[in-house]
Amino acid sequence: MAAKLPLAVDLDGTLIKTDLFTRAMLRFCSAAPWNGIVLLAWLTRGRAYAKQRLTRLFPVDAASLPYNAAFVSWLREERATGRIIALATAFDQAGADAVAAHVCLFDHVFASDGRTNLKSTKKADRLRRAFPEGFVYAGNERADLKVWATAKAAVVVTASPALEREAARRFEVERIFPRDEHA
After folding, report:
1. What pairing do the DSSP bridges indicate for beta strands 153-157 and 173-177?
2. 63 phi and psi, to 5 degrees?
3. pLDDT of residue 33
């Protein structure tokens, strides 16, 4: 049996049921009223820069995050078969590394670095360079359409029904993890 293509996994909304950048912004802005102005100044230097600054102030507590249990279980099964698995996120590298160290599933970690916001086409380009023979991508939002377009197949995780349908229409879908309406 041929080895499966490497699997690249998005973090926010896919591996975890939250968005780390949003959580960090809310935490920062609620700490002091003037922090909103500071955040806006950071954002003028780019989202990657703001993510890096927020991650330095509020390191990710990976053990406390709400993981998508069914998806993580499947990732463990895939890893047990020898499949290469990469974390590919637009969140900051330090936060991505903390999550990767906690879950112990990833062979590679690709993330924003303070200069480049690794989202959409930039993420697709990075994954294409890392896996020139092809890869499968697991994601959950419209920005992931650009990554799925360069992948050999899609894994759709807790996406809206409309995005599930669009992915199924446009791409080869390896697996769908539907939203848990009771979560």
Report:
1. parallel
2. -70, -25
3. 86
pLDDT at 107 over 80: yes
Alpha-carbon Rg for the chain, nearest whole angstrom, is 16
Total residue length of the chain: 183
| pLDDT over 90 at 66, yes or no | yes
Full domain range(s) for residue 35? 1-183
Query: What type of residue sits at position 137?
Result: Y
Return the closest-CA partner of residue 144 out of 161, 122, 128: 122
Nearest CA to 83 out of 1, 157, 179 is that of 1
In terms of phi and psi (left: phi > 0; alpha: psi -120 to 50; beta: otherwise), the region of 144 is alpha
The domain spanning residue 38 has which CATH number?
3.40.50.1000
118-142 pLDDT, tens digit per residue, is 999 999 999 999 999 999 999 999 9
